[in-house]
Amino acid sequence: MKGVVFNLLEEAVTREFGPDTWDDLVDDANASGAYSSLGNYDDEEIVQLVATAATTLKITNAEVLRWFGERAMPILRERYGALFEGHTSSRDFILSVNRIIHPEVRKLYAGASCPFFHFREGEAGSVMMGYESSRRMCDLAHGFVKGASNLYCEEVVITHHTCMNHGADRCLMEIRWTH
Ligand code: HEM
C-alpha cells in the first residue's frame, strides 16, 4: 500500500483525536510510523493499524475503515481539488473513479495498485458498485463514497449485497441517494 494512504490515516486520526493518539496507535500496532507518500509498504501494516484502532475503540475493523474513508475525503479534496471541481454531484464524482481519479493517482504514485469498480444502474436511480481486490477493503470504498456524498451535501445509504469478507467472490454494493 502506498505511503500516501498511511499519511491520510495519520492526518485523519490526528485531526479527530490529536497527535498523541496517532503515536499510541503506531506503538500499539508495532508499526514504523514513518511513511513517505511515494513509498510502498506492506499491506499487513495498515491492516495492523486498523485492527489495533478497532480493539482500542471497541468497534469492528470494518467500522474503522469506513470511518477512515469518510474522514479521508475532505483531506483528499484539500490536496487534489481538481479531481472534485469538475463534478456537480457525488454520483458524477464516484463514477469518475475508474476513468479519471485512479488513473491520475497512478500517474502521481508510480506502482499504485488501485482497485477497478464495476458500475451499473440500479433500481430507482441507485448505483450498483462491484468491487474485487485481494485487499478486501470494500469498507474503505464504502467510507470514501460516504465521504464524497458529504462533500456534495448529499446523503447516501450503502448496502453490501455480497461481500468478499463474508465468503463471496466479489463485493456488490448498492448506493442509494436519499437527499
Ligand atoms: C469514491 C471514490 C473512491 C473510491 C471508491 C476509492 C476506493 C479505493 C479503495 C477501496 C482502495 C484500496 C485498495 C484496494 O482495494 O485494493 C483505494 C486505493 C487508493 N486510492 Fe482510491 N478511491 C476513491 C477515490 C480516491 C481519491 C480521490 C484518491 C486520491 C486523489 C484516491 C487514491 C487512492 C490511493 C493512493 C490508493 C492506494 C493505492 C496503493 O496503495 O497501491 N482514491 N481506493
Compact overview of the structure:
Helix content is 54%, strand content 13%. By secondary structure, the chain is an alpha+beta fold.
What does this 3D model show about the protein?
With 179 residues, the protein is α+β, with helices and mostly antiparallel strands. It folds into 2 domains: 3-65, no CATH class; 91-177, Alpha-Beta Complex (H-NOX domain), CATH 3.90.1520. It contains 8 helices and 4 strands, in the order H-H-H-H-H-H-H-E-E-H-E-E. It has helices spanning 3-17, 19-28, 43-57, 61-79, 81-85, 90-95, 97-108, 138-151, and strands at residues 117-121, 127-131, 156-162, 171-177. A 4-stranded antiparallel β-sheet has the order 1-2-4-3, covered by helices on one side. A hairpin with a 5-residue loop joins strand 1 and strand 2 (127-131). The chain is globular and about 45 Å long. The protein starts with a helix and ends with a strand. The model has no long low-confidence stretch (mean pLDDT 97). Protoporphyrin IX containing FE binds next to helix 1, helix 7 and helix 8.
